[in-house]
Amino acid sequence: MRILIVNDDGIYSPGILALAQVASEFGRVTIVAPDVERSSSGHAVTHGRPLSYRRTPIAGFEAFRVDGTPADCVAVGFSISERADVVLSGINLGLNLGNSMWHSGTLAGAKQAALMGSRGIALSTPSTQTEPDFATLQPHVADALRLLLPDARLPLVNVNFPAQPRGMAWTKQSVRHYDGRVVPIKDPMGRQLYWFTVVPMEAAEEGTDRWAIERGLTSFTPLRLDLTDLEALERAKT
Ligand code: MN
To answer: What is the CATH number of domain 2-173+204-226?
Structure first.
């Protein structure tokens, strides 16, 4: 199995190496990742300027750093070598649950794989004051790949690991509104700056990705590329 690994935290993130180490038990791994962090870049692609990439072997893995977005990295990866059978995106330093899926560059890497006719799996874990304990997490990542890789009926899956997984759950996306306040602060020179903030406004619904993580379960959410609201479509037509 040919496995392309991308991320949005940048090629030097510890999460990408932790994922490559596990993935290499399942197939031949190539890493193609942004040269700098591109978190929350969403599904942007670069087409107003050319892209460049450089070979950057990492811990024995064939790897390339790209001056582009996670979605660009999938396209570059598919053109550097044969099209991968699956693209793994992560392991992101930070969860990608519910509304985050709209902003996530990690998820965009997996979506781009599905858009180009391959399969995509996004993998994320919380990152707070300390970095995730990837040695603890790696056996759980291996379990996830053992579950997902053989099942070709799953073209796109979003996986979120709690810090200490104690089970797993198939979930749906939690669509929870957030306040999205833009908070003013001052820089050291007294000039005005602003931070976009995300404070959830509602509790997590049962059976959703956020609900699973709150219970210490690894969340597996199967996704699709079709955003159509089928119920609204039917209502609109009657
Ligand atoms: Mn990130």
So the answer is: 3.40.1210.10
Contact 158, 87 (CB under 8 A): no
Q: Torsions phi, psi of 54, nearest 5?
A: -130, 145
Domains of the chain: which residue ranges? 2-173+204-226
Interstrand relation of 62-66 and 53-55 (parallel, antiparallel or unpaired)? antiparallel
Q: What is the pLDDT of residues 97-118, one digit of tens each?
A: 999 999 999 999 999 999 999 9
Ligand 1 midpoint to CA 9 (Å): 4
CA of 212 to the centre of ligand 1 (A): 21
Distance 215 CA to ligand 1 centre (A): 23
Q: Give ion ligand 1 contacts, CB < 5 A.
A: 8-9, 39, 92
pLDDT of residue 199: 85
Residues 6+ apart with CB under 8 A from 99: 174, 175, 176, 177, 178, 198
Centre of ligand 1 from the C-alpha of residue 127, in Å:
10
152 C-alpha to ligand 1 centroid (Å): 26
**pTM tops 0.85:** yes
Q: Which helix (H) or strand (E) holds 148?
A: helix 134-148
